[in-house]
Amino acid sequence: MIRFERLTKRYGPLTAVSDLSLEVHAGEVYALLGPNGAGKTTALRCLASLLTPTTGTTWVDGICTQEAPIGVRRRLAFLAASMGLYERLSGTELITYFGQLHGLDGPRLNERVEAMIDLLGIEDFRDRLCGRLSTGQRQRISLARALVHDPPALILDEPTIGLDVLSGQTIYEFIDRERARGKAILFSTHQMDEVDLLADRVGVLRGGELVAEGSPASVVADTGEANLARAFLSLIREPAGEVR
Question: From first to last of its 244 residues, what are the pLDDT tens digits of the chain?
Fold first, then answer.
């Protein structure tokens, strides 16, 4: 469903992502882990057609991002770490507007807007201007606008950053529901508890390279550490003598 094929992205002399290959299957949640600057967001932005790879390709639902970016965007929801909501629109207006951008109209548009409001617990603040919402409320609106067209693949870049426990739980429950519906979900996070709760598989990036991949349990076992947090720290340490 989601595929990276030897993706490399360079900025002048800096290689942000190097020869990245991975797949996320339908009905699977894949957590992409790495320290700041490891290349997570760059990889996700290449997949979403927001950046052009230096070499390599990315695919969503059988469509190559580099050959048909509009087709990929129709099959993809991308939740960026920076929400960037239109502050003078209400939550309902914003979700409706993005539904229209994706070609929805009439009863289908209304159905999807109401479904997102219900699923993400937006009802109590649906008519409040986005500029007057809390961080957790803004994140739910941002997720609703990204998913209103009901695509088969989801990219979530740190979806619970800055959220309180209740708002975070709403996001977790939503991810579980979408996985059960057969969606392919790729998310980045720094929260190991989220990985334990949600991820079927994980990939660890260090210096733009994929240095480990597997189920959370297998990654822990392969490193010989006591838990995923310690395994992650072990994996992101630069090998002795290596300088980047």
Answer: 999 999 999 999 999 999 999 999 999 999 999 999 999 999 999 999 999 999 999 999 999 999 999 999 999 999 886 767 899 999 999 999 999 999 999 999 999 999 999 988 899 999 999 999 998 888 889 999 999 999 999 999 888 877 777 778 888 888 999 999 999 999 998 889 899 999 999 999 999 999 999 999 999 999 999 999 999 999 998 664 444 4
Contacts of 181 (CB under 8 A, 6+ apart): none
Beta strands in the chain (DSSP E): 2-11, 14-24, 28-33, 55-60, 63-64, 76-79, 153-157, 184-188, 201-206, 209-214
What are 35's two structure tokens?
């320290």
Give CA–CA dist 169/3, Å, rounded: 28
- Write phi, then psi, for 33 (nearest 5 degrees): -115, 155
Left if phi > 0, otherwise alpha if psi is -120 to 50, otherwise beta: which for 105?
Answer: beta
